[in-house]
Design a protein that fits this description.
Elements lengths: L2 H16 L7 H12 L4 H19 L11 H15 L22 H14 L1 H27 L2 H15 L10 H19 L8 H11 L4 H21 L2 H21 L7 H11 L2 H6 L12 H21 L3 H16 L4 H23 L5 H23 L7 H15 L18 H9 L8 E3 L1 H11 L11 H16 L5 H7 L4 E5 L3 H7 L4 E6 L3 E6 L2 H6 L1
Parallel strand pairs: 1-2
Antiparallel strand pairs: 2-4, 3-4
Helix pairs in contact: 1-2, 2-17, 3-6, 3-7, 4-5, 4-20, 5-6, 6-7, 6-8, 6-16, 6-18, 7-14, 7-16, 8-9, 8-10, 8-16, 9-11, 10-11, 10-15, 14-15, 14-16, 15-16, 21-22
Length: 554
């Protein structure tokens, strides 16, 4: 808020107080004080919501390295670069020697391109900044959607903070960050359509689905949301109405869901994308073996925020059930279950749950003004008074707002990412203690064997692609959907030095292995004469397989 605007507000407030002969009520006096204390706040609450992910990242996590804790970022960047170079999406595998030429669906190709452009511009700092922009946009959508539902700015801001903090469990600089943002946008569209009873709004998700389907495979979440609205609205009508009323109210949602299904086929892989996603999510192997598909570790710090949201969601679902708002009940309960089932669903759960929790919170506060103990009535009165002051300032302030705070913050973060100095929390690089950074440097400078067929963990595969491709390909990487359960299981058996590890490596003609120094496989290879360690650092050891004749001469 500009100084002249604030002066005019104070002058008007002073004249209002003077007109009461200096005997203004206590509440009016408090509102006057709120105007002084929180004058700049309403115009910047959306800006603060945008900055929340940045604040949470540096306050609650390890900072920028938290976003680069998964090596899949590496192969996403290289895929995008390949698409930019060749002008079309890949149809067959590019990165492995075990599946070379096998058909491959790069189902996040458009996000890969955007990541590659960011990487071309600024390297890994550009990719990190892109991730922060996506997180910030998601946070703003959650906040504004909750304000539109409940009307309380501070309640919406606190709930948004809880959602952002809980979502850190799956914050990685990867394409999946697109899906919570798209979910938040779609949820606002559906909410607006339901409030206005305007079926024309329900055609808006079609172009959104086309974009979503090319950015990330989570586009089916949007279709599921529309179907939930269709079932919920039909059930609400059936309670007191008839089948005809139920169909009349849910018809537009059914048509919108059908349209979105058809729109999702507008991608380079057509229906093959849908088959691929269905096969991937239908395989129980991944839910048993991949950590992000499993339930959250309730000893981790994001668990406290998730638990708080979960309790609020169940309470809100009970409240909405009493009010016969079955759409909200279905949304809250179904996604609470999915969030408990898999940690990677928690960010989507947070986006979906917060607006409905906000509606329940508004009604709880209203009930608290009449039927509660004195302390509760005073608390709710204070919240309402504070909200009234914030709304008054928002109405009196100029509508012109240049969002200078987030712009300045983004520019500052961009500068610090490019010039981190000695700050580890700002260093946009793969962690030396997690990924074989020095070993990859050694490999890039040596020609031990020709060609090198290197075995390594799929957890390191994406990083090795980022560092060494195309001069070197990998055994496997984080594209578990591409390799399939059987092949991933074989790789894990080698990793754990299962009795058949040697036959698996021989079948794939592996002649080098890069593994952790303290792994079971490293201990086994040190005892085998045909495997010789040629490099070792604090994290990884590199073995090269030598011919039997050479081993005998040694």
């Amino acid at each position: 808020m500009s100084c002249p605007t604030l002066i005019r507000i104070r002058e008007k407030r002073g004249s209002d107080c003077a007109s009461q002969g200096g005997r203004e009520p206590k509440a009016a006096y408090r509102s006057c004080k709120l105007l002084d204390l929180f004058g700049p706040l309403p115009s910047t609450l959306s800006d603060l919501a945008f900055l929340l992910p940045i604040l949470v990242l540096f306050w609650c996590t390890t900072g920028v390295p938290w976003l680069l804790a998964d090596s899949d970022t590496g192969w996403h960047i290289r895929t995008g670069e390949w698409i930019l170079t060749n002008g079309h999406v890949p149809k067959a595998d590019l990165f492995s020697f075990t599946k070379a030429g096998v058909p491959w669906i790069a189902w996040e190709w458009l996000t890969d391109v955007v990541m590659a452009l960011a990487h071309r511009a600024c390297g890994l700092p550009g990719v990190v900044l892109l991730a922060l922009l996506l997180l910030g946009a998601t946070s703003v959508c959650i906040y504004r959607g909750t304000v539109a539902e409940c009307g309380y700015r501070l309640v919406a801001f606190v709930l948004t903070w809880l959602a952002v903090a809980a979502s850190t469990v799956h914050w990685l600089a990867r394409p999946h960050l697109v899906t919570p943002l798209m979910t938040a946008i779609l949820l606002r569209i559906l909410s607006s359509a339901e409030k206005k009873q305007n079926g024309a709004w329900l055609w808006t998700p079609l172009p959104l689905t086309i974009l979503w389907g090319n950015l990330h495979g989570g586009f089916f979440v949007g279709i599921a949301l529309i179907c939930t609205y269709a079932m919920g609205t039909a059930a609400e009508e059936l309670i007191h109405g008839s089948w005809q009323d139920a169909w009349a109210r849910s018809r537009n949602y059914v048509l919108a869901a059908t349209g979105c299904v058809l729109a999702s086929f507008l991608n380079p892989y057509s229906y093959h994308l849908h088959v691929h996603v269905a096969q991937y999510l239908g395989a129980s192997f991944y839910f048993e073996r991949i950590i992000e598909f499993q339930s959250i570790d309730f000893h981790s710090f994001p668990a406290a925020y998730f638990e708080t949201l979960l309790v609020l969601a169940i309470a809100a679902a009970t409240w909405h059930l009493h009010a016969q708002r079955l759409v909200r009940v279905l949304l809250l309960l179904s996604w609470s279950h999915l969030a408990l089932f898999s940690a990677r669903n928690i960010p989507i759960f947070a986006v979906i749950a917060v607006p409905s929790i906000g509606v329940a919170a508004r009604e709880w506060l209203n009930v608290g003004t009449s039927r509660s103990p004195v302390w509760m009535r005073e608390f709710t009165a204070s919240i309402a008074e504070l909200e009234s002051g914030l709304r008054s300032i928002a109405n009196r302030c100029s509508r012109r707002h240049w969002h200078s705070l987030p712009v300045f913050a983004v520019l500052l973060i961009a500068f610090l990412l490019v010039h981190p100095r000695h700050s580890k929390v700002l260093r946009a690089a793969f962690d030396h203690d997690r990924f074989p950074v020095e070993a990859a440097g050694f490999l890039s400078q040596q020609r031990l064997l020709s060609p090198v067929r290197l075995y390594s963990s799929w957890q390191w595969g994406g990083y090795l692609i980022y560092r060494l491709w195309p001069s070197m390909t990998v055994f496997d990487d984080g594209r578990s959907d591409f390799y399939g359960p059987n092949f991933v299981e074989e790789g894990l058996r080698v990793w754990s030095a299962h009795p058949d590890w040697c036959s698996i490596l021989e079948r794939n003609r592996v002649n080098a292995a890069l593994i952790p120094v303290d792994s079971s496989l490293a201990s086994v290879l040190r005892e085998r004469p045909e495997w010789r360690p040629v490099y070792q650092d604090h994290l990884a050891v590199l073995f090269a397989k030598i011919e039997k004749g050479d081993a005998n001469r040694d």
